Amino acid sequence: MSGATTKPLVIGIAGGTGSGKSTIARAIVSEFRGEDVIHIQHDAYYRDRADLTAEQRARVNYDHPDSLDNALLVEHLDALLAWRSIERPNYDFVTHRRTPRYTPVAPTPIVIVEGILLFEDRRLVDRFDIKLFVDTPADIRILRRIRRDMKERGRSFDEIRKQYYETVRPMHEAFVEPTRRLADLIIPEGGNNRVAIEVIVDRIRRDLSHRATMHAAKPRKRRRGDS
């Protein structure tokens, strides 16, 4: 795949918590060479609320759009689109703080971004060439979230249940579900939908091939001294 000859193709994957967004993203990534694709999670861009105590940070509504630093993500996407590297933040879900270490990310022809609230911000939507919404029933999504939060984020079942009823479900209805209308393709059942993944991968390959063809067909600007 060509390097900095065309603008990178940016794919946004949104959907409710536990819908299978990460599974879809990983499935797409696996179809391409490592140097051709990067996968960025919106979760890495939670705001670093150093101004709050640990107890106050635990009470923040992390399912509301204001909890995310979208301005930084927009800045990073613009850098990647201009073929410049970025330093992606890392977030600790136990302490609700960004870690001191950043992850260097080099630009690639394919950029995949996934997150629950990804389509809620128009600035982000405008930067996606392909927009996917993963649609999975609520009962399946909450079971996946319970398993993930207990295993990976050190949460208790009571904490997860309380957060689900107080913020996750109402924020999904207010901010996530309405954005499905912005999607180019709605994928049912998340990562289990192999047909959808094959369709998306084929679309990505065709889009990149078309971009490369269009770039090659552009007339080269004449320089002084050319005959």
β-sheet strand percentage: 15-25%
By CATH, the topology is Rossmann fold
What is the radius of gyration computed over CA atoms, rounded to a whole number of angstroms? Answer: 19 Å
Q: Overall 3D geometry? A: globular
Q: Helix- and strand-based class?
A: alpha/beta
Q: Give the class-level CATH name.
A: Alpha Beta
**Total DSSP helices:** 7
Helix-residue proportion: 25-40%
Low-pLDDT runs of 5+ residues are none
Q: Which architecture per CATH?
A: 3-Layer(aba) Sandwich
Largest sheet: 5 strands, parallel
Write the layout of secondary structure elements.
Blueprint: E1 9-15, H1 21-29, E2 37-41, H2 54-58, H3 70-81, E3 86-88, E4 91-92, E5 97-98, E6 103-105, E7 110-114, H4 122-125, E8 130-135, H5 138-152, H6 157-176, E9 185-188, H7 194-217
Parallel strand pairs: 1-7, 1-8, 2-7, 8-9
Antiparallel strand pairs: 3-6, 4-5
Helix pairs in contact: 5-6
Question: What is the compact description of this entry?
Answer:
This protein is an alpha/beta fold and 227 residues long. The chain has seven helices and nine strands. α5 (138-152) packs across α6.
